[in-house]
Design a protein that fits this description.
- GO terms for molecular function: 5'-nucleotidase activity.
- Keywords: Hydrolase.
- It comes from Desulfosporosinus acididurans.
- With about 190 residues, this protein is an alpha/beta fold.
- The chain has helices spanning about 15-25, 40, 45-55, 55-60, 70-80, 95-105, 120-125, 135-145, 175-185; strands at about 1-5, 85-90, 110-115, 130-135, 150-155, 170.
- It folds into two domains: about 1-15 and about 65-185, Rossmann fold, CATH 3.40.50.1000; about 15-60, no CATH class.
- A six-stranded parallel beta sheet has the order 3-2-1-4-5-6, sandwiched between helices.
Length: about 190
Amino acid sequence: MRIGVDIDGVVSDSYPYWMQELNQYFGKDVKTITNYDMHRDFEVPRSDMNDFFVGNAERLLFMPNIVAGAKEGIEALIKEGHEIIYVTARTPEEKDVTIRWLAKSEIPHEHVLFSGFNSKVNLVKEWGIEAFIEDYHVNAQEIAAIGVPVFLLTTSYNLNYEELSQSIKRCRSWKEIVEGIRELKGPLKG
């Protein structure tokens, strides 16, 4: 099966690192990110948040740790014959740092696609992705709407979204994700 995998929040444990950096930069003490649009939690204009990320992209994308169980989960799926295709909202300009992070973290990677903050749906269709692993509820809903089952890794910023498509399965860990993929019966295309 061809499996799409998001990077930030799914493979790269970006948000705890970003929260630490954002607290320091903006002089805040935010303990939990409750909104994917982090500027809301930090009570700063979106433009200030964007400027911070653009000016510090190299460090912010290279320094995070790996999400617990992600490396082992990806390796298990590959060993079982699945093809992993990373589909990230990062921009094509962030390709080098992304590939270096994956290599440094010893995460197997052959195909890494960059949607550049556009919908991931076109890449999912173009690459014939049959299941997807995501953390952002909006992406999960869009991908599920085209008939692709989505495994939504539960995070502090997607907890408030219980009205999810039946094609979306909430998972608390990579172990649950791998088990869910094993339960899929054959390719499911939309």
